[in-house]
Write a structure and sequence with these properties.
The chain has helices at 2-10, 16-19, 46-61, 65-75, 85-94, 98-114, 121-145, 150-164, 174-182, 186-202, 211-224, 226-230. With 232 residues, it is mostly helical.
Length: 232
């Protein structure tokens, strides 16, 4: 059925014609429509979410290369246009599909890395809080039912923390936030260690146009956070 669904929904004008132009909330004014909605805001209906989940299944699990290529072509604009962050955030918050979870988390990571300066301070804070809360609530169940879906969400959280690190002390309370995981269930403890491991790895500066900024980020992280992490 997934094969037939993908063929139907990617035919003609393509699935993105409906996914990329979600209706705003009834009370939204014209200016607000230019900015991504709050995480979890209603930017897709159930049919559109189901449609995207079918495409993600075809992308990662298609039985033919033609189906995979078709799904890739349809989904690609979602991870290239920063205005699509709201759709990916909605998918991450609402999907029960491991394939859609992986797609939305990796797509968001690509978009925020490339377009970080266009993300508002409010959105940065909302995204960070949402990801911490999402992992606290859903992480243990994901480990049991869809373990491959955990790491992309953890990596996305770590990238948000890294990019925001130098923007204020409110973005550097990593030890306080992760300590809540370490004091909870065994699977939460594993999640906390994975966050620390991935964050420490991602903090290593890489060669590129932002190398100087990332080096300052890494030094600040080393001096202010790493000692607490080593105590874990």
């Amino acid at each position: 059925s997934s094969h037939r669904q993908t063929q139907t929904e990617t035919g003609g004008g393509g699935a993105l014609s409906s996914l990329r132009r979600p209706a705003g909330p009834p009370h939204a004014d014209a200016g607000a429509a230019d900015h991504p909605a709050a995480i979890g805001g209603r930017v897709m209906d159930a049919a559109q979410l189901s449609q995207l989940e079918g495409l993600c299944h075809a992308l990662y699990n298609a039985t033919s290369e033609a189906d995979r290529a078709q799904a890739h072509q349809t989904l690609l604009p979602l991870v290239q246009n920063p205005q699509c962050m709201q759709q990916l955030q909605f998918v991450l918050a609402n999907t029960s599909s491991p394939h859609a979870l992986i797609f939305s988390a990796t797509g968001l990571m690509k978009l925020i890395t490339t377009h970080w300066t266009s993300v508002s301070d409010q959105q940065k804070e909302e995204m960070r809080n949402f990801l911490f809360d999402y992992l606290a609530k859903n992480g243990p169940d994901l480990y049991r039912s869809a373990p491959l879906g955990v790491s992309p969400v953890v990596r996305l959280l770590c990238r948000v923390i890294k990019l925001a690190w130098l923007e204020g002390p409110q973005h550097q309370d990593i030890a306080v936030r992760v300590d809540q995981f370490l004091r909870s269930s065994p699977l939460h403890w594993v999640l906390g260690l994975e966050i620390y491991t991935d964050l420490t790895t991602d903090m290593q500066p890489t060669v590129g146009p932002s190398m100087s900024r990332f080096r300052r980020t890494a030094l600040s992280f080393r001096d202010s956070a790493l000692p607490d992490i080593f105590k874990t």
